[in-house]
Write a structure and sequence with these properties.
Its EC number is 4.3.2.7. GO terms for molecular function: glutathione specific gamma-glutamylcyclotransferase activity; transferase activity. This is glutathione-specific gamma-glutamylcyclotransferase. The protein is α+β, with helices and mostly antiparallel strands. The chain has one domain: Roll (Hypothetical upf0131 protein ytfp). It is built from five helices and seven strands, in the order βαββαββαββαα. The strands form two sheets. The chain has a five-stranded antiparallel sheet, with helices on both faces. The radius of gyration is 16 Å and the shape is globular. The N and C termini lie far apart (51 Å).
């Protein structure tokens, strides 16, 4: 069984599993957004951070990275991804078609925000997002590190994301003042 995983946030720079192939890919019907309060990895219950999620929008698309899991590592990868991504059940595990930059399409495992979950916070103004990200810290480190790593890797891959670029610049301003 071939397993593809679509990454749009930290999976881009830290997949955490054996990768046989990686390609820039686009998923339609969703956009990348800091629409999930993080109470474990990049914040706490007392001081939540924000992490990226795919938020449904029929007119949007999200460009990220499609990873083909190394043969023989599919079951282990699935178990590890579920432990990492489903820690608070704010994400829904799904499969969806993603279009590879090199052509073709694959069915990919993807984690999508549950808009009915208490951690969902879609629609926060960008400056409010920046204020939260600038100071929150969780079990995997500062929220700003997560933003900077994701933004920098998207730039390295040639993937434009105006909101993430704006947020990265604004968070740096906040932290330097």
């Amino acid at each position: 069984m071939t397993l593809w995983v679509f990454g749009y946030g930290s999976l881009i720079w830290n997949p955490g599993f054996e990768v046989a192939e990686r390609q820039v890919a686009t998923m339609h019907g969703y956009h990348r957004s800091f629409c999930m309060r993080s109470i474990h990895h990049r914040g706490t219950e007392e001081d939540p951070g924000l992490v990226l999620a795919l938020d449904a929008d029929p007119n949007a698309s999200c460009t990220g990275m499609a990873f083909r899991v190394a043969e023989g590592h599919e079951d282990r990868t699935l178990a590890e991804l579920r432990e990492r991504e489903l820690i608070s059940s704010a994400y829904l595990e799904a499969t969806a078609p993603v279009k590879l930059q090199t052509g073709g399409q694959v069915e990919s495992l993807v984690y999508i925000i549950d808009p009915d979950h208490v951690q969902y916070c879609g629609g926060l103004p960008l400056d409010e997002q920046a204020q939260i990200i600038a100071t929150a810290v969780g079990g995997r480190g500062p929220n700003s590190e997560y933003l900077f790593n994701t933004s920098d890797h998207l730039v390295d891959l040639g993937i434009a994301d105006a909101e993430l670029s704006w947020l990265a610049n604004r968070v740096r301003e906040i932290q330097s003042s």
